[in-house]
Backbone:
């Protein structure tokens, strides 16, 4: 806890220091500047606004185009990445402020990420693929502990874990059922896979994709007919199709 308070205080002091510096700079400009300097500052602000508007407009156009074509050409790579990494987190934030559905935008973010990864047309040997599943896919009445070792599943058919275990065995892919984002991150750091294939809700997937920048991630959103985090589902045929697309078979 001490460490977290120290980090919090350190960042807070930096923010206060930057605010004071800004205040001093504005005060200096206010007292010692003439109309020419005011005009120059206004021109810089106008130029910056134009640049941001043009960059964001290009990013929006690129994101929509790529979403429709389901492919990212090398010419659109930069605007799409700017759109995904800068514009979309901002849109998700604004959507939250106005009480909109963040999950709809997060779903779009995940789709764009998947298109980016697939557009590389890279195939991976099974031993480089790590599949991460959320614990909530397991039937809540099941007594077997499948987290960390999916082989404890008896494949009784009461939930999709059994089918996924069977599929992973056939395709020789590592699959781990995780209890949360921190465990997933630790497993990724330890296993260092070539690609991650992750099933989760929109929020966990979007956070995971944003966190793991060095390893490509394909995300699939789970179905939640019983509400969040409880007896969720995934279409195993779709999962297999997605997996086979990136597998070197
Ligand atoms: S398929 Fe596996 S995890 Fe699901 S209920 Fe049956 S034994 Fe449990």
Residues:
């Amino acid at each position: 806890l001490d460490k977290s308070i120290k980090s919090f205080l350190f960042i807070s002091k930096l923010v206060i220091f930057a605010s004071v510096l800004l205040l001093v700079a504005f005060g200096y400009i206010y007292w010692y500047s003439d109309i020419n300097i005011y005009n120059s500052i206004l021109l810089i602000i106008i130029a910056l606004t134009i640049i941001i508007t043009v960059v964001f407009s290009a990013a929006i156009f690129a994101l929509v185009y790529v979403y429709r074509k389901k492919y990212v050409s090398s010419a659109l790579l930069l605007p799409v990445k700017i759109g995904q990494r800068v514009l979309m987190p901002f849109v998700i934030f604004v959507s939250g402020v106005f009480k909109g559905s963040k999950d709809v935008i997060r779903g779009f973010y995940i789709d764009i990420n998947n298109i980016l990864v697939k557009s590389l047309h890279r195939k991976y040997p099974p031993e480089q693929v790590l599949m991460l599943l959320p614990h909530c896919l397991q039937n809540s009445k099941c007594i077997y502990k499948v987290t960390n070792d999916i082989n404890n599943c008896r494949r009784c058919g009461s939930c999709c874990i059994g089918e996924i275990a069977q599929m992973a065995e056939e395709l020789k892919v590592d699959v781990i059922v995780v209890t949360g984002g921190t465990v997933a991150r630790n497993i990724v750091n330890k296993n260092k896979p070539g690609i991650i294939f992750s099933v989760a809700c929109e929020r966990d997937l979007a956070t995971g994709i944003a966190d793991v920048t060095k390893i490509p991630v394909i995300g699939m959103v789970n179905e939640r007919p019983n509400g969040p985090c409880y007896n969720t589902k995934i279409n195993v045929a779709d999962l297999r199709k997605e997996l086979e697309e990136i597998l070197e078979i």
